[in-house]
Amino acid sequence: MTATVVVVLGALCGGFVTGLAGLSSPLPTIWCGLRGWNADAQRAVYQPFNLAILAIVLCTYATQGIMTEQVWKLVLLCLPATILGSHLGIRMYGRVNDQQFRALVLWLLLASGTVLTVSNLT
Fold it and tell me: Could you report the per-residue pLDDT of 46-65, keeping only the tens digit for each?
């Protein structure tokens, strides 16, 4: 397969999982990890992919009326934690090497999968 086909298939699968379960990152994250890319290359894929997919989802939700007043209140409630988490992530990124980055990404994937699984069992 050519690189273009792989990217298109990855975007299609990532978009499908985003629409299905709201999880935009796991597939591109796993794909980049399997390719053995360094932290900069992986981040260069994650960030624009997530921005594009999540912007499309937001626009779709807005046009379907899913973005109600209650949802916007929850967005505003979560905004400070999101900004703080982003700030801490950016600071931490500059202090880890490629191996530490890979380990952190895998642990975060495991943690998010565990939380989703446990929350669905209760």
Answer: 888 888 888 888 888 889 99
